[in-house]
């Protein structure tokens, strides 16, 4: 189903038959004017509808141009109040500007702090207008950004049994729904102390994200984290190679059978040889993948054991303190 059709479906459920009512439409599609008490019901209608449509579409980033041209275009009639609606949402913190309110998550900690201070000064000195918001390529819906961040952490926690995890940037982008979405979510999680960006160069430039899966802040990046990222990146590359080899095996097998059925045994034999070579390559690749995964399992087990030992040590210390207190 196309986005425009999904939007219409959400509007029908949210608004009902009132959406097609001419009198109601004229009232809602007018520009906001007068006292706040006069236009607040119209503002709340559009605000809630924007949030509802975005939520149903699984979006937390919206394009102002889409609101007018696609989402709420009613036979060429578009709401004249959308610029003010977005402006009020911005003033209430429901919307943020990516260029001003978010920092580059790939920058260092000091750089991020400096950028936040600079952006804060820019925001105070610059007057944000309804026209400026409508001219933006993208706007971020704060409440849905936070909700998506919780979803991402929950999804990662279902795949890992440690208090924090490391994933490649590609994997993180896939989970978040795209590169731009991943950048916004990483910026938000970094600001909350729940995620850190890391990168290394091992011939290839490898990027990753370390995410806290518990209530605690994400620990600092260690050399072991970089090694783990490299191993995880290697497993993903090997898995990609396996997928390519599997496709090659399937093609060779089909070609060999087709040639045999047509009586062309010579060409069929060539495809059989190619299939044999592909199977050998697959076996070598699968063996290497298993070894890398075994190393990752050992590291994860060691980390878990280390944390359990630390908890036991802390419990023993607490028991000793309690015993001393009871004696006194």
Architecture overview:
This protein is mainly α. The chain has a domain at 3-145. The protein is built from 13 helices and 6 strands. The chain has helices at 3-15, 22-28, 36-57, 64-71, 82-91, 98-101, 109-125, 130-134, 142-159, 169-176, 179-191, 223-261, 265-327; strands at 61-62, 95-96, 139-141, 164-168, 195-202, 204-212. Helix 1 (3-15) packs across helix 3. The chain starts with a helix and ends with a helix. This is Charged multivesicular body protein 7.
Helix-strand topology string: HHHEHHEHHHEHEHHEEHH
Low-confidence stretches: none
The tally of helices reads 13
Helix/strand structural class:
mainly alpha
Shape: flat
**First-residue to last-residue Cα separation:** 73 Å
Number of strands: 6
Biggest beta-sheet profile: 3 strands, antiparallel
Estimated helix fraction: 55-70%
Q: Strand fraction band? A: 5-15%
Radius of gyration: 28 Å
Mean pLDDT: 84
- Biggest β-sheet: strands ordered side by side in the sheet: 1-3-2
Pfam family, one: WHD_CHMP7_1st
Protein name: Charged multivesicular body protein 7
Topology:
Elements: H1 3-15, H2 22-28, H3 36-57, E1 61-62, H4 64-71, H5 82-91, E2 95-96, H6 98-101, H7 109-125, H8 130-134, E3 139-141, H9 142-159, E4 164-168, H10 169-176, H11 179-191, E5 195-202, E6 204-212, H12 223-261, H13 265-327
Antiparallel strand pairs: 1-3, 2-3, 4-6, 5-6
Helix pairs in contact: 1-3, 3-5, 9-11, 10-11, 12-13
